[in-house]
Amino acid sequence: MASTTYPISTAIDCPEKVDYSKASGKSVIVTGGSSGLGAAYVRAFADNRFASPVSEEYWDLRYLAEHSVRYVQCDVRNWQDQLTAFKSAIAHSPQHCIDIVIANAGISGSDEFFEGAYPPISVMEDDINASEDDGDEPRQPRTGILEINLLSLVYTAKLAMHYMKRQGPQFDRCLILKSSIMGFLDTNGSPTYGAAKHGVRGLMKCLRRRSGLRVNVVAPWYIATPLMSDAVMNTLTTQLKEQGSGFALVEDSVKAVMRIATDDSINGELLPCFMDQNESSVCDVGRSIAVLPRETSKSGYLDLDLDDFKTGSLYHDLQTICSNLTHRQLPPQEQK
């Protein structure tokens, strides 16, 4: 077996202005487009007269007709529903293709992982023994967050890979996975939320060098949307301000998505990118783009530059070894 090394990729620039018109005429699927960031993504494409098949959304019928948007009702946790949505999108696309898929569906809230088992984060250690517990039988945590925020994205990625790889080279093959900045940080929130968002990043790293698609992650900071309750909004507003921070902006999340959607060199033409050990190259493969408050980033978004390891580091050496292993390419029945 020929030995290959693992090339690193470089951070992309994240300008304040992005030319959205470069995505004109693209066919786009957005999951979770009923409100929040998903709705903002859909409107950005639709307002620029892009063909945008959308799942899980219902808007004014006149708006849908005028902006080439097609509504497909979809439970993203259901494989068959997503399959139907993809087939509908392809059938109604002007060129019967999909250029861009934005796996955006997601929820937040309590998963009842800590409820009844541990004190809240504000409780002092001395009070732990005094806190209420589950008794003899622990309560099962809710898994809805995990199902929507990770499992549904696995389904979306599988469908995107299946259909996009069958398209001609004249079409883009762009998959954008929405994670969260909590996919990179420790969090005081729901464990299943943090686990799902870390998992989305892991999905990107598994797909970006072998799927044949442009695969990238958008990872927003806290963004105020209609989905956020008044209690959460008020608490975050106060606590972020106390720490010299604030909310990221919806328009900057749109900008981050459009930055990826309008530049096919981001995890694009440089694939495949493994090479012989005596060669050297830099590959622009899948990136994680954070959406941040403008106090932190002037443009409102930036490349986190955390997806590769420095040449010569232990992690890079381990990654190179893993990149040369083929045991998971054996027939399924032989993989244990």
Main β sheet profile: 6 strands, mixed
CATH architecture: 3-Layer(aba) Sandwich
Q: How many H/I helical runs?
A: 8
Number of strands: 10
Hey, roughly how much beta strand do the residues contain? 5-15%
Q: Regions with pLDDT < 50 over 5+ consecutive residues? A: 123-131, 268-283
The whole-number mean of residue pLDDT values reads 84
What proportion of the residues is helical, as a percent range? 25-40%
Give helix and strand order, one letter per element, not per position. EEHEHEHEHEHEHHEEEH
- Going across the biggest sheet, name each strand in turn: 2-5-6-7-9-10
Distance between the termini: 22 Å
CATH-defined fold name? Rossmann fold
Quickly count the domains.
1
What overall geometry do the principal axes of the alpha carbons give? globular
Keywords: NADP, Oxidoreductase
Family: Belongs to the short-chain dehydrogenases/reductases (SDR) family.
Pfam family, one: adh_short
Protein name: Rhinocladiella mackenziei CBS 650.93 unplaced genomic scaffold supercont1.5, whole genome shotgun sequence
Commentary on this structure:
One of its GO terms (cellular component) is cytoplasm. It contains eight helices and ten strands. The longest helix has 21 residues, at 144-164. The protein has 336 residues and is α/β, with parallel strands linked by helices. It is globular. The strands form three sheets. It has a six-stranded mixed beta sheet with strand order 2-5-6-7-9-10, sandwiched between helices. Strands 1-8 form a two-stranded antiparallel ribbon. A two-stranded parallel sheet has the order 3-4. It has helices spanning 36-47, 61-66, 79-92, 144-164, 191-207, 230-242, 250-261, 314-323, and strands at residues 4-5, 28-30, 52-55, 69-72, 100-103, 174-178, 214-220, 275-276, 288-291, 301-303. It has one domain (19-309): Rossmann fold.
